[in-house]
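Lecture notes, part 5. Sequence design as translation. It can be helpful to think of inverse folding as translation between two languages: the language of shapes and the language of residues. The source text, in structure tokens, appears below.
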């Protein structure tokens, strides 16, 4: 029992930040030992077949929903990103303590995922749609709609009402990790597209403060010094924006 508990959790994902960035942050902050099984689109590193042909079939027998990301913890195979965040978060005590904290964590986590889905539709969609829609998606809009600006502003305003150091209170939660990655990715993407960035604007003051607090947290220093943060691209090379510069 004791030895098994200390066995590292294996994180499986593409060799990018993407949906695994929050997983890595949770493990670092929560003191969970982990190793990684990274898959790549580059043929030199095994290509997609390394996942689809060599690894997925066996995992499929253990979990019919299997997709990237997944985690293996002893005999367990957990998949789907929010399920993975909650699983790791429960182990690390990062899902909120009181009902109020849990409500804040869940709201921001799910809104971060809505934001990511809106981004992915453009990033991995047809190039002509991307060219026509990327700048509109990244900039303020008068018509509402599912734009990055709308989502980030909503979450900024939630943080203002919460009035807590982190999303769910005094310590980092799974929602902080998801929101942090979305804030950084969208900021870099806006910069790459030559439109206004978010984190330096007064209307995103709460979001900017949270990002700064997370970057300064000593428990996350090893993550921020790691190549998983500094070198891996935000998205896969098949996306219209992926560079982590």
């Amino acid at each position: 029992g004791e030895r098994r508990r200390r066995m590292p959790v294996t994180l499986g994902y593409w060799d990018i930040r993407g949906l695994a960035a929050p997983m890595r942050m949770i493990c670092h902050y929560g003191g969970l030992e982990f190793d990684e099984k990274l898959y790549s689109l580059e043929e030199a590193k095994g290509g997609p077949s390394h996942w689809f042909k060599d690894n997925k079939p066996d995992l499929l027998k253990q979990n019919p929903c299997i997709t990237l990301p997944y985690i293996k913890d002893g005999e367990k195979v957990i998949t789907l990103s929010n399920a993975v965040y909650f699983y790791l978060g429960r182990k690390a005590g990062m899902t909120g303590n009181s009902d109020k904290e849990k409500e804040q964590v869940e709201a921001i986590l799910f809104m971060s995922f809505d934001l990511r889905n809106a981004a992915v539709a453009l990033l991995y969609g047809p190039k002509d749609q991307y060219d026509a829609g990327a700048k509109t998606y990244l900039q303020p809009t008068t018509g509402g709609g599912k734009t990055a600006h709308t989502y980030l502003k909503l979450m900024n305003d939630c943080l203002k009402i919460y009035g807590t150091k982190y999303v769910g209170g005094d310590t980092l939660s799974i929602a902080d990790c998801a929101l942090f990655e979305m804030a950084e990715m969208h900021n870099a993407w806006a910069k790459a597209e030559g439109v206004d960035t978010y984190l330096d604007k007064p209307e995103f003051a709460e979001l900017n403060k949270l990002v700064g607090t997370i970057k300064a947290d000593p428990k996350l220093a090893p993550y921020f010094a790691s190549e998983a943060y500094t070198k891996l691209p935000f998205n896969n090379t098949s996306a219209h924006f992926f560079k982590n510069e």
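The translated text above is only one of many valid answers, since several sequences can fold into similar shapes. The beta strands are 9-14, 34-39, 70-73, 76-79.
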